[in-house]
Design brief:
Belongs to the Nudix hydrolase family. It is found in: Cytoplasm. It is a single chain. By secondary structure, this protein is mainly beta. It has one domain: Nucleoside Triphosphate Pyrophosphohydrolase (Alpha-Beta Complex), CATH 3.90.79. It contains two helices and eleven strands, in the order ββββαβββββαββ. It has helices at residues 47-59, 123-131, and strands at 2-12, 18-25, 34-35, 38-40, 62-63, 69-78, 81-91, 94-95, 104-110, 136-143, 152-160. Strands 1, 2, 3, 4, 6, 7, 9, 10 and 11 form a nine-stranded mixed sheet that branches. The chain has a two-stranded antiparallel sheet with strand order 5-8. The longest helix has 13 residues, at 47-59. The protein binds 8-OXO-2'-deoxyguanosine-5'-triphosphate. The site of 8-OXO-2'-deoxyguanosine-5'-triphosphate has 17 residues, from strand 1, strand 4 and strand 7.
Length: 169
């Protein structure tokens, strides 16, 4: 099963609303949909290091590793087999201006205007809670063969309020 990360940088917008930095993904899995910056762990890398690197590579933002708050662990199953294990982080410690890359167009979005209809089908089930400061472990079942983003989302289990306090990696 591949191991990946997602990072959701957050800030206070001009009118005091909370905003999240999303990317419109320009290639690869989930192309054309919104997501957080993120991707696959490289050899020897911790999930936290991966989230920092991917956020920098995809949108040019510097995030402080120790200020990444672990918010979730998501398992995506395809036809009954583990396909992706994803560590989810959020952070308010963000420096720099987001810039587009070959992989992603970045956009600050108010958290009550997140375009769930242009995201993976499961995201509306867990991302609102994550953006409100909750923690979650989720399992999401897809069916219909590769690639994952063309398979059908058929079921899920969620557990909220999980502690990741011991997880500093
Ligand atoms: N929000 C969300 N993200 C998902 C879902 N399923 C899923 O694999 N992801 C995540 C896992 C990864 O962190 C992220 C993007 O995957 P990726 O960057 O490895 O894919 P890619 O094919 O573009 O990889 P690469 O070749 O560019 O390295 O998508 C989902 O249902 N919702």
């Amino acid at each position: 099963m591949r191991e990946t990360t997602l990072c959701f940088p957050m800030r206070e917008g001009r009118d005091g609303e909370t905003e999240v930095l999303l990317i419109e993904k320009r290639r690869g899995l989930g192309e054309g949909w919104y997501n957080g910056p993120g991707g696959k762990l490289e050899a020897g890398e911790t999930p936290r290091e991966c989230a920092v690197r991917e956020t920098h590579e995809e949108v040019g933002l510097e995030v402080e590793p120790s200020a990444l708050e672990k918010a979730g662990e998501l398992t995506f199953l395809l036809d009954g087999e583990g396909h992706t294990f994803c560590h989810v982080y959020r952070t308010r410690s963000v420096a720099g201006e987001p810039t587009a890359s070959e992989e992603a167009y970045p956009e600050w979005v108010a958290i009550d205007e997140v375009p769930y209809e242009q995201m993976w089908d499961d995201d509306h089930l867990w991302l609102p809670g994550v953006l409100e400061g909750e923690t979650v472990v989720g399992k999401f079942r897809f069916e219909g063969g590769q690639p994952l983003d063309e398979a059908e989302f058929v079921g899920h289990d969620l557990e909220w309020g999980v502690s990741f306090a011991a997880d500093r990696k």
